[in-house]
Amino acid sequence: MGALTEAYHNGLAGRAYGFVTFVGTAVGISSVAFPDETGDVPWQIWLALGAVVLLIAVVRSLPGSSAVYVHEQGNWSIELVRGNLLDYDNGCVITADRSVSTLTSDVGTGSLVGQVSQQWYDGSDAALTAEIQQALAASSRSTPVNLGELVSFGGPQGKRAWLFCLAERTEHGSRTTWHDLSTAYGRLWEQLRAGNLQEVTCPIIGAGFAGTNLSARGTLTFLLLSFHGSSLERRVTSRLRIVIHESDFDPRMYRSARAMLAELGYRH
Fold first, then answer.
1. 149/34 Cα distance (integer angstroms)
2. Which of 97, 125, 194, 199 lies most in the core, judged by the most C-beta atoms within 10 Å?
3. Tell me, what DSSP letter sits at residue 145?
4. pTM as predicted
5. Distance between CA atoms of 248 and 242, rounded to whole angstroms?
6. Sign of CA pseudo-dihedral 96, 102, 106, 109
7. 66-267 domain in CATH 3.40.50.12780?
8. Is there a contact between 95 and 174 (Cβ–Cβ < 8 Å)?
9. What is the pLDDT of residues 17-44, one digit of tens each?
């Protein structure tokens, strides 16, 4: 997505209109107060001024790489980040299916589990599988696990992560529903709260499994509302960082999240 397109979806038209209105008003006042001086200004100056106003509007409308929203009365914050989830390797939630599938041949190289195998275990599915099986045995669990359960495992080089068992495997791939998400989110916040964690990093949980049934932007809204509601009951974590992959990013995500979180008592 080009920069101008991103700026447009992030409110460029409104900002440009506001800037033009402000400048037009200022020029109008100046022409009344100083008619001679204003009339002598060359048209090239007005054209340059218009170009500067448009450029400022574009720059102000470009979505940044991250945005932090702090709840005004609570002691927690939400951060939205564009990037790679696995760059944050301490307290990372990785979505998986309830069968805890770890083989790239089953989950694909584009899935988060597949990326963990490639980036953290040098492409060794066997090493990742052994790590997960050890974690399951340590907690006396077997597959398939219950919806919304976390499987904690320690990756190489001191990495720390959880597999969040969400989707159900079918012959057509892994799928989840709004009802599953609602239930799983609630269980996720309970487990993270019990860990007394300062910060947690997660993807837009559910969007990748849902395919065409759930949009990434809609799922992000659902995720934010669920976290907010649970935090009002009792703090889940000091900071929830949601990493948005470039393939899922839509500049309207920031715009809609900013508006919704402002209504919920967050400041940007």
1. 71
2. 97
3. P
4. 0.75
5. 12
6. positive
7. no
8. no
9. 565 676 667 666 666 666 666 566 665 6
